[in-house]
Amino acid sequence: MAAVEKPAAAEAPETSWPEAKAPAAGGFLLKGRYRIQQDARLPDYDSPTAAAYLAEDTLRKDRRLLAYVCESSLPLRWQFLEHQRQQNIRGILSFVDEGGLAWPSAKNECPVIVCGRPGPRLMPSLDTAIAPMMPQEISTVVVASLVEALRGLEVRELTHRGIRPDNLFYADEKEKKRVVLGEAVTAPAAYNQPVLFEPIESGMADPAGRGQGSQEDDIYALGVTVLTLLFGKLPVQEIGNEAILRGKIQKGSYAYLVGSRALPLRMMELLKGLLADNVEYRWGLDRIEHWLDEHREHGHANAPAVAPHIFTFRKEQYTTARALACAFLEHPQQAFRAIQESRFEAWAARSLTNPDTARAITEEINNARSSPLSPERLVARVAILLDPKAPLRYKSFTSMIDGFGGILAAGFGEDEVRHNFADVVRLHLPQYWMTAQGLREAANRKRLQRLHRIEHFLNRRGLGFGLDRCLYELVPGQRCLSPLVLPHYCVRVSELLPALEAATSDQQKLVEPIDSHLAAFIAARFPGRIDAFLVSLASPTGSAERVLGILGLLASLQDRYGPAKLPGLASWLHRLLPPVIESYHNQAFRKQMEQQVEGVIGKGSLVALYNLIGNPARRRADRRAYALARNRYTRSLAETAKLDRKLKELPLTSLVLGHVFAIRFSILIALISFSLMLSRYI
Amino acid sequence: MAKPPLRPIPRHRTRRPPPAEKMSLGLWWIFGVLFLVMASAFAFSTVILLTVGLLPAWVAFVVDRNPTKAAGKSVMSLNLVGVAPYLIDLWVVGRAGQMDKAYGMLTDPFTWFVIYGAAAVGWVIYLGMPHLIAGYVEMRTLQRKAHLVRLRQEIVEEWGEEIAGAMSRQGD
């Protein structure tokens, strides 16, 4: 266990908790600067997962700001937020600041995002109709602005995943010449997107599991947005998600969404390009820019690939592999039997265009026959082969490969989600999905390594591992869900100690100032080396090793982030220290340490406390000296026993020895006497 | 054709050579007596003095059942010391008066006192030496035990009772 060598906490800047004080005069104050007006709602700027309020910069009152008070249970899109924190992206709602705030209507502190306030929405809501926009206006105002925004995202390797008409705002209140994209950070990527605005593959996934996706997904959403603005209302209305997906799968997105309505030729070109279901045919930004420059482009027809043979399943006839995969997943038990019938194998061999896929299906079926698999597992694997571009689907778990974090974060409280996630990872379905994509190994290496890490964390027991660790590893914007800090909004590891210190008075009835969430959060977020402390946490409750693990972990945090004084936490830990002090063997050292600990506790420095009682060199020296003493004690006992035996056998040994000495002594006397006698005659 | 049953290979018995037979004590006595008879032909008075003077040593050899013959050897050494001055006196007077001198010595009680007194000292050494050694060894052993007890007390004071407990647990 490495010591926290630097006693630098005393010099660290002291941070105070909470960072958002409430209520300030006329509203809640975020980071001592931004006043959020609780009474001044801005419903026109609301997002499905965040309520908009008027905000004011107390230092620069001329700024037009709004604050999004987000749902406390959903993680923010941290990567997106971090990029915006560094530099705002032109064409996207400008980010100002972010923090946690104790909002009256919420049980826990809510994340709050302060943004620049743009002009009005293009479309107040998706349910309401607006006047259809002219094609010219759409191309110059909407498409040109969004292409610029998407270019900005492309440079940063980001996606927006929230492009829809009710998330578009005019940049200016008066001159409506440019639009900006609304927020996309208050929930997992594409969480707020209706299925209509998502490509087929992403639309099939659970909203929380759609993942970051790619620029092609944003371009598809742009296509549906353009179509909606062109019509002044949604192209398809009042139909459930299932029906929308079925329609898109059967007819193709363009044909399904446009239907029989006539479009201007120029818009038709654009929409055919944007709504192509095959990603290879979907337009990229270059082609859209070409189109904006009046160059004529021919969009590809995107009719779905229909299999030459029909497969009948549950009395329904299926002509596409994608539709059949969906049907299989809906009825796994029946699908399990149908897959193992010879007619399915024959259908796959004749109908699937890729012979490798047909071969893989045959292999799966043979494997299932030789070693029984669960129906859900077999169906999931066959569905991946039938429709490799679709999300990974297993029981009710439906997620894109990069959407695991979102789905786990959104449903972490539900046992079903947790079990399904664990099953998916343990059954190596993601690896199977990636193999089915036919991607080169190099492209997948990083993702595979990540999956291996996640599986390792999932299978390892003890504090700091398990599903909790997977959650924090997969979702960088996930707040710490530990009940020890939960009223507070802790999304950065530096925010933990102040929150824990603030909660000490309520929590001291608990045994330890750590739990599985807290340990996993620290393990996932803390950049230093804390493996040794995590290993110590696996020791039984109340053991010296475990207490040292807790202390070392918290001291590492204090050493790096401060605050320098944590008297509440120090006194809490003080109650746990007896086993640690007793683990030292030297009695005098124990007494001396007990006296020194009292002084350190008063200062509130966990670093000093750890360096005092957890110093590995000192512990090693004590152990070594104790081992030597024990050795001396053992040898002393053995020697005493030997002496007792010697005493017991003394009558016999003394007799033998005495006789030997008697002979020698007598001979000696005789020799001396003879010498003296002879000396008289010589 | 059925194979004949395999017979176990006979183990070679190695005969130990018979131990070299020692010459029995009785034989020694016979040789001793023959030697004395032969020697008495040349130095009769010396043989008489030695035979009578060393009687305690011969008795000690006979009564000592211990194979080391420690009693015999101890008594013999000092018995010889007692006899030696008279033997020298006897050899100094010359061959002519040796018998008279020997007779005079053997009839003098002081001669008996000196010779048998020396033999008695041999017996004292033989009988007393084991007690002396036992006393010395016991004293040293008890001193060492006391030192070890003090050492253990110091270790327990420094490292706590648990060190004794750990030892007893190890012993269990």
Would you mind describing this structure in some detail?
The complex is a heterodimer of chains A (682) and B (172). With 682 residues, chain A is α+β, with helices and mostly antiparallel strands. Among the domains of chain A are: 20-116, Phosphorylase Kinase, domain 1 (2-Layer Sandwich); 135-292, Transferase(Phosphotransferase), domain 1; 649-682. A seven-stranded antiparallel beta sheet of chain A has the order 1-2-3-4-5-7-6, covered by helices on one side. A two-stranded antiparallel sheet of chain A has the order 8-9. Chain A has a two-stranded antiparallel ribbon with strand order 10-11. In chain A, a hairpin with a 7-residue loop joins strand 4 and strand 5 (65-70). In chain A, helix 17 (441-459) packs antiparallel against helix 18 (467-474) and helix 22 (544-561) crosses helix 26. The model of chain A is unreliable at 1-23 (pLDDT under 50). Chain B is mainly alpha-helical and 172 residues long. Chain B has one domain (41-171). Chain B is 75% helix and 0% strand. Chain B contains seven helices and no strands. Chain B has helices at residues 25-40, 44-53, 55-63, 70-92, 98-107, 109-159, 162-171. In chain B, helix 2 runs antiparallel to helix 4, helix 3 packs antiparallel against helix 4 and helix 4 (70-92) packs antiparallel against helix 6 (109-159). The termini of chain B are far apart. The model of chain B has no long low-confidence stretch (mean pLDDT 82).
